[in-house]
């Protein structure tokens, strides 16, 4: 692994290359926040894909692509004299110190070289230390500090981005509500809600009321996501693993149909089911 100095040198070298490309490359010259945004979304999903596959070389590569976009936006802002990469890093450092009072004393927020606790000021006086006993307490403190940063004008859920995929957004909404005490007292109680929402969905489906069915389907999915959260399962990761499992097994069926020269549309459901079960036994999901 590299030393801190080597890391800083590598980052500086990267920034120098970005500056040169912005000046000399026709494509890089014309990029704006608006033109880069779609690529940023794509790069973020590619990183997430590498993460769920645990493909270490690919994770390293995709992290670089995401970092390029972060620095590119900062470069564009610098050209407009709005902010630069140092401002981005300093703002982030201040936020991390502020939101971790159990690690840093508030006196270190603007310090050039922040010192974690136990910290003794130069005058030798004692400092008040915030103590936490669990991850839950850390998250609760985080949300409370965020509200104070906005002078109480920001709502608990306003920090959930509108553009988040719906499944992830539901999880974040529920998690943020939990951090201020709005949650089930006993996680097992959530199953009553899940069954209740499923029953309401079945009623509307039997009525063939599409609008109401859509509403009840949303309520049911929200309750299932809530159950996953309460049992410390990530529903997005779980669904993605199932997606990949389905793709692998279906590809197995398709490959067999090609091998025997029988198109999928000509195979019976029984034949496909048999191959599906064969794929379950053969493939490593």
UniProtKB/TrEMBL annotation:
UniProt KW Nucleus keyword: no
Gene Ontology MF annotations: ATP diphosphatase activity
Entry-linked Gene3D superfamilies: MazG-like
One GO term of the biological process aspect: UTP catabolic process
Catalytic activity: ATP + H2O = AMP + diphosphate + H(+)
EC number: 3.6.1.8
Keywords: Hydrolase
SUPFAM superfamilies given in the database record: all-alpha NTP pyrophosphatases
Annotated NTP pyrophosphohydrolase MazG-like domain residues: 31-103, 192-250
Endpoints of the signal sequence: none
Highest rank taxon of the organism: Bacteria
Protein family (similarity comment): Belongs to the nucleoside triphosphate pyrophosphohydrolase family.
Alphabetical list of NCBIfam families matching this protein: mazG, PRK09562.1
Protein name listed in UniProt: Nucleoside triphosphate pyrophosphohydrolase
Species: Xylanibacter ruminicola
């Amino acid at each position: 692994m590299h030393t801190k100095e080597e890391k800083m040198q590598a980052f500086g070298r990267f920034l120098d290359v970005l500056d040169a490309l912005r000046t000399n490359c026709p494509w890089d010259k014309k990029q704006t926040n608006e033109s880069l945004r779609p690529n940023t979304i794509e790069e973020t999903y590619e990183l997430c894909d590498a993460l769920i596959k645990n493909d270490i070389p690919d994770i390293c590569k995709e992290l670089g692509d995401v970092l390029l976009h972060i620095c590119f936006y900062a470069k564009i802002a610098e050209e407009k004299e709005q902010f630069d990469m140092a401002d981005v890093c300093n703002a982030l450092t201040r936020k991390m110190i502020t939101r971790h009072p159990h690690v840093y004393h508030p006196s270190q927020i603007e310090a050039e070289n922040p010192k974690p606790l136990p910290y003794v000021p130069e005058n030798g006086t004692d400092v008040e230390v915030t103590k936490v006993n669990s991850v839950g307490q850390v998250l609760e403190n985080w949300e409370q500090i965020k509200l104070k940063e906005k002078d109480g004008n920001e709502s608990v859920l306003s920090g959930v981005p509108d553009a988040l995929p719906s499944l992830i957004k539901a999880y974040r909404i529920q998690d943020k509500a939990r951090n201020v005490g709005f949650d089930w007292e006993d996680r097992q109680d959530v199953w009553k809600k899940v069954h209740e929402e499923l029953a309401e969905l079945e009623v509307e489906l039997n009525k063939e009321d599409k609008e109401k069915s859509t509403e009840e389907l949303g309520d049911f999915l929200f309750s299932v996501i809530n159950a996953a959260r309460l049992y410390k399962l990530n529903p997005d990761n779980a669904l993605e693993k199932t997606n990949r499992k389905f793709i692998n097994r279906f590809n197995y069926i398709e490959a067999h149909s090609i091998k025997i020269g029988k198109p999928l549309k000509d195979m019976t459901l029984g034949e496909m089911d048999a191959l599906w079960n064969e794929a379950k036994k053969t493939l490593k999901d």
